[in-house]
Amino acid sequence: MSDLTKIPCTIITGFLGAGKTTLVRHLLENAGGRRLAVLVNEFGDLGFDGSFIEGCGIEGCTQDDIVELPNGCLCCTVADDFVPALNTLLNRPNPPEHILIETSGLALPKPLVRAFNWPDIRSRVTVDGVIAVVDGPAVASGAFAEDPDALSAQRAADTSVDHENPLEEVFEDQLLCADIILLNKIDQMQSGEHAKALAEINEHLPRAVKVIETVQGKVDPKVLLGLGAAAEADLEARPSHHETAEDHDHDDFESIALPIDPVATPEMLVARVERAAEASGVLRIKGFAPVEGKPMRLVVQGVGRRVGHHFDRPWKADEVKEGRMVVIGLKGFDLQAVESALRNG
């Protein structure tokens, strides 16, 4: 089978909270009649990002078009999770015309690209392109997408560290594998920060890669889909700090999902998340909760010191109105402080 008859797949990578799910939704909402399917991989105890997409009312997108893989990083579970899930989509009576793969914020893209050479799938699919979504304000601040104090604490506690922080290596690996980089959230940066973010990105790139500036990931799908990169055949041009899956694990990170009671106002939950995000070692907090007297589900996301919130969809008639927050942090983060802040305010 030639590359022209293989089903193209776009890998969307990026650091914690960069805006990958928002980009996926934008692509689905502007599919222009093309049959798209999505593989979503969120690291943690709750497959949260998939719930943003499933049943979202996007024309032509059904629940069968969304395959969620919450049980570990795709680049570490290729044989057990990724290849079978991809085959499930490919073996459908009416297979998708293009597949979007949203990796977790901790995933390395190159092992996933390499997996497209596996015998089970290499004749049927190709990597049309790798899109790296970058959190502009976080990169401009030098934090990438996490609390810089937590990074400093980790570095200070480990006397054996004589190289760049592992999180920076993940960020760099995502850029090094990319065919296009989306510098997202440019509306949240001043001119000096904008220039600093671009300089930081260019410093990590040994080859010319197109950088597109976006707000909420809004870019014409024609720019991102149909690149024809065949990245699986171009691995030598995509260097990595971690060349094999065995080199990569999540020992530096841990996550927990905590139940959240209904809140009286959105501001009350935002304040609790802000306090929880200050706990030592916390990188990201993301979840949802019911608000008393409101029919919509409240979504709250915190990356570093920035916390945002919005109502995403109505609660379903048969759905239990339970809230939950996923907290991702450096191994050994202060769980007691997080629980206290989220539950007691």
Total beta strand runs: 12
Radius of gyration: 20 Å
CATH architecture title of the largest domain = 3-Layer(aba) Sandwich
**Terminal CA distance:** 58 Å
Shape: globular
CATH superfamily of the largest domain: P-loop containing nucleotide triphosphate hydrolases
Level-1 CATH class name of the largest domain = Alpha Beta
Structural class: alpha/beta
Q: Tell me the domain tally.
A: 2
Can you list the strand order of the major beta sheet?
3-2-4-1-5-6-7
Biggest sheet features: 7 strands, parallel
Would you identify the regions where 5 or more consecutive residues have pLDDT less than 50? 43-48, 146-165, 244-250
CATH topology annotation of the largest domain: Rossmann fold
Question: What is the string of SSEs from the N terminus onward?
Answer: EHEHEHEHEHHHEHEHEHEEEEH
What is the percentage of strand-forming residues? Answer: 15-25%
Question: What is the percent of helical residues?
Answer: 25-40%
Number of helices: 11
Instruction: Name the average pLDDT.
Output: 77
What does this protein structure show overall?
The chain is of the alpha/beta class and 345 residues long. The chain has two domains: 7-247, Rossmann fold; 253-344, 2-Layer Sandwich (Hypothetical Protein Yjia, Chain: A,domain 2), CATH 3.30.1220.10. It has helices spanning 20-29, 48-53, 78-90, 109-114, 136-140, 148-157, 166-176, 191-203, 221-224, 266-277, 335-344, and strands at residues 7-14, 36-40, 66-68, 98-102, 125-135, 180-184, 210-213, 253-260, 282-290, 296-303, 306-314, 323-330. The chain has a seven-stranded parallel beta sheet, with helices on both faces. It has a five-stranded antiparallel beta sheet with strand order 8-12-9-10-11. Strand 6 (180-184), helix 8 and strand 7 (210-213) form a beta-alpha-beta unit. The protein is globular, with a radius of gyration of 20 Å.
